[in-house]
Q: What sequence folds into this?
C-alpha cells in the first residue's frame, strides 16, 4: 500500500506535527519558517522535534511556504496532504498582506500536491470570510480565502471546526511572532482540492442522419459541452437516467409501454405555433457552402453543411426572424426545443397503438433567460397515449398516480423531507408563476394541468417546482375518434428536486466527483464538493439602437456563451431615456459564479471584457 506523504508548514513548536507522526502508512515532513536555532528555544519545541525524528519524520527549517518546490527534489514533491495552521505574515499585518500570503501559498502548493491531494488551512474565527464563520465578517474585512484559493485553481470542498483540545499534545503559539498562544475558539479548518480547469471549447461539428442524408452542422458554442453527453444511455449512472428507468418500470405495470427514442433527430424543420423565434437555436442550411480541406479529409466532403445562426440576425418587434433576400438559404432547421412535434408526427402517420403508452425521451434545447431554473438544455420525457373520447380524465389520473408513486419511491431512498406532488389546472396558474420550462411549454399548445412538486411542508407551489405538464388533443383518426393525452416531464428538474442539487449546471459537470455520488440505478442526496464559491459582480451600461426592441434573450445567451455558463444572474438595475433625443440606455448587473470550478477575479474580468465586445458587435449597442 502506498505511503501517504503529508507536508506541514509554518509549525511554531512542532506540537501539531508530533501529534500526526506515527500514524500507519503516513510519512510526515514538518517544516517551519524560522531557523532551527530560533525554534529550539520555544517551549517544548526541542522535545517535539526529537520525537518526530525518532519516528522517521523529516524536519526542515527555514522553509518559505510561497516557494515550496525549491526545497524538495522533483521525485519528492508530490504530497497527498498539505497542512498550514493559522498562517500569518507576522506582527500586525493586515488582511491585504495576509491575502497575498495565502495567494502565493496556494500557487506554491499547486506545484507540490498530487492530483487528488488536499490542502488544509486552519484560520481563526471570522478570518476566512465564508458563511461557515460565525459571526461572519464583512467580505472586504476578511481574508477572502475561497477567492484567493480560486486564483490558484482550488475549490473549498469541506470545512469543519478546528478542535485544538482533541489534538493530543497540541499547543498553539506564535501570537504576533512571539512565543505566546492565541485564541483558537471558533477556529475552522478549510479543506481545499484541485478544481478542473475552466473549459475553453473549440468549435464542434455534429454529424447526423437527416432525411436519408448524412449532414453536419456547427454546434452553438453554448451547447458544445452538452450536445452529446449520453446521459440517457442504458449503462449511464446519471440521475436523469435513473429517474427515467424508475418511471418507465412503474408505468409499464399500468400500461402497455413502447419506447420510441431511436428515431428522434436533433434537428427539426417546420413551424412551431406560438413560439418566439428568439428562443430557438437556429441551424441554417446553405447548399453553396464548401467543406474545408480538413472537413474533406474527415470524410465530410459529401455531407450537407449547416451553420449555426446565433445573434447577428434581424428580428422583427415580436422576435420573429427575418431572412433577407439574397441569402441563398433553401431550408431552415433548428435544434429541437421539444419532443412534442415528433409525437404528433407519429400519431398523424398512424404509427401507434391506441391504449399503449408511447415514451419518447432525449435532450431538448431552448434559448432562455438566466435564472436558477432556466436551462438551455434539459432531458425531456414525453408520454403519449391515445384513448377513447370521454376516458381521457381517467387516463390522466392513472398516469399521474403512477408518476407520483415512482417519484415518491425515489425520494424516500434519498431524503426524509416531506414531498408533495399535485396537479394544478392551467387556469389556477398566473403567467408570472411559471418557471421557464412551463412557460415555454405553454407557448406550444394549451396545457390542461401542471405537475407540481415541492419538498417542504408549506403546501405552496413555489416558482421552479413545476416539473411536468399534461395536455390533450383531438385527432380524427381512421379507427375511431380518439383523444391523445400528452404528459411531459423535465427529468433535470426532477433530479434537482429529488437529490437536492441546487444548481442545474451541476448536472452537466465533467467533474467525476459528481457522478461518483450516484451508483448505477440509485439516487443519493447530493453533497457539494465546491462550498461557498466566490462571486463577482460587474455592471454594463449601453445605448440601444434607435427604433429597435432590445432582445434580452440574445443578451443573456451571449453572457452564457462568453462565460461558459459562469453568469448566474443578470439584473436590470437602471433604465434611462433622454428627453431630447429619445435615446434609451440600459444598465445591467452581471453576477459571475461557478458551481463546480475555481473561478478567479482575473478570469471574470476577461469574460466581462469579451462580453462587452460581443454585445457591441452582435446587438449593435453603444457602450457607455
A:
Amino acid at each position: 500500500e502506498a505511503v501517504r506523504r503529508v507536508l506541514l508548514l509554518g509549525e511554531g513548536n512542532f506540537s501539531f506535527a508530533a501529534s500526526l507522526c506515527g500514524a500507519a502508512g503516513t510519512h510526515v515532513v514538518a517544516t517551519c519558517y524560522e531557523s532551527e536555532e530560533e525554534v529550539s528555544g520555544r517551549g517544548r519545541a526541542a522535545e517535539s522535534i526529537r520525537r518526530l525524528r525518532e519516528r522517521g519524520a523529516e524536519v526542515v527549517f527555514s522553509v518559505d511556504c510561497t516557494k515550496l518546490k525549491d526545497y524538495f527534489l522533483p521525485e519528492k514533491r508530490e504530497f497527498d496532504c498539505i497542512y498550514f495552521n493559522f498562517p500569518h505574515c507576522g506582527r500586525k499585518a493586515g488582511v491585504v498582506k495576509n491575502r497575498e500570503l495565502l495567494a502565493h501559498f496556494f500557487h506554491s502548493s499547486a506545484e507540490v500536491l498530487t492530483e487528488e491531494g488536499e490542502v488544509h488551512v486552519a484560520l481563526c474565527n471570522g478570518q476566512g470570510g465564508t458563511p461557515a464563520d460565525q459571526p461572519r465578517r464583512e467580505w472586504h474585512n476578511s481574508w477572502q480565502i475561497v477567492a484567493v484559493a480560486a486564483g490558484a485553481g482550488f475549490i473549498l470542498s469541506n470545512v469543519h471546526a478546528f478542535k485544538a483540545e482533541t489534538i493530543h499534545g497540541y499547543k498553539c503559539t506564535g501570537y504576533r511572532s512571539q512565543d505566546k498562544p492565541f485564541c483558537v475558539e471558533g477556529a475552522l479548518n478549510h479543506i481545499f482540492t484541485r478544481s478542473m480547469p475552466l473549459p475553453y471549447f473549440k468549435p464542434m461539428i455534429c454529424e447526423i442522419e437527416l432525411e436519408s442524408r448524412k449532414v453536419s452542422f456547427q454546434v452553438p458554442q453554448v451547447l458544445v459541452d452538452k450536445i452529446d453527453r449520453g446521459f440517457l444511455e442504458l449503462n449511464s449512472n446519471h440521475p436523469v437516467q435513473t429517474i427515467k428507468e424508475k418511471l418507465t418500470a412503474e408505468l409499464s405495470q399500468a400500461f402497455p409501454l413502447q419506447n420510441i427514442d431511436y428515431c428522434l433527430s436533433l434537428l427539426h424543420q417546420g413551424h412551431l405555433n406560438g413560439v418566439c423565434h428568439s428562443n430557438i437555436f437556429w441551424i441554417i442550411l446553405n447548399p453553396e457552402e464548401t467543406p474545408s480541406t480538413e472537413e474533406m479529409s474527415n470524410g465530410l466532403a459529401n455531407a450537407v453543411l449547416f451553420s449555426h445562426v446565433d445573434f447577428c440576425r434581424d428580428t422583427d418587434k415580436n422576435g420573429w426572424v427575418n431572412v433577407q433576400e439574397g441569402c441563398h438559404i433553401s431550408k431552415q432547421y433548428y435544434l429541437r426545443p421539444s419532443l412534442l412535434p415528433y409525437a404528433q408526427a407519429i400519431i398523424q402517420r398512424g404509427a401507434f397503438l391506441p391504449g399503449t403508452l408511447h415514451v419518447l425521451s432525449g435532450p431538448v434545447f431552448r434559448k432562455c433567460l438566466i435564472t436558477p431554473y432556466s436551462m438551455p438544455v434539459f432531458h425531456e420525457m414525453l408520454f403519449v397515449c391515445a384513448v377513447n373520447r370521454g376516458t381521457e380524465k381517467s387516463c390522466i389520473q392513472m398516469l399521474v398516480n403512477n408518476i407520483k408513486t415512482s417519484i415518491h419511491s425515489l425520494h424516500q431512498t434519498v431524503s426524509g423531507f416531506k414531498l408533495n406532488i399535485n396537479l394544478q389546472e392551467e387556469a389556477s396558474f398566473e403567467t408570472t408563476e411559471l418557471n421557464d420550462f412551463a412557460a415555454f411549454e405553454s407557448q406550444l399548445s394549451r396545457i390542461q394541468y401542471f405537475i407540481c412538486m415541492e419538498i417542504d411542508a408549506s403546501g405552496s407551489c413555489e416558482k421552479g417546482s413545476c416539473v411536468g405538464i399534461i395536455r390533450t388533443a383531438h385527432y380524427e383518426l381512421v379507427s375511431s375518434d380518439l383523444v391523445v393525452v400528452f404528459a411531459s416531464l423535465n427529468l433535470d428538474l426532477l433530479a434537482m428536486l429529488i437529490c437536492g442539487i441546487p444548481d442545474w449546471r451541476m448536472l452537466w459537470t465533467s467533474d467525476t466527483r459528481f457522478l461518483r455520488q450516484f451508483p448505477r440505478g440509485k439516487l443519493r442526496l447530493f453533497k457539494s464538493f465546491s462550498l461557498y464559491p466566490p462571486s463577482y459582480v460587474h455592471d454594463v451600461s449601453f445605448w440601444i439602437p434607435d427604433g429597435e426592441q432590445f432582445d434580452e434573450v440574445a443578451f443573456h445567451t451571449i453572457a452564457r456563451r462568453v462565460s461558459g455558463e459562469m453568469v448566474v444572474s443578470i439584473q436590470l438595475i437602471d433604465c434611462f431615456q433622454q428627453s431630447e433625443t429619445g435615446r434609451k440606455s440600459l444598465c445591467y448587473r452581471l453576477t459571475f459564479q461557478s458551481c463546480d470550478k475555481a473561478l478567479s477575479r482575473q478570469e471574470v474580468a476577461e469574460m466581462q471584457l469579451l462580453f462587452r465586445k460581443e454585445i457591441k458587435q452582435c446587438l449593435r449597442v453603444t457602450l457607455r
In short: The first strand starts at residue 4 and ends at 9.
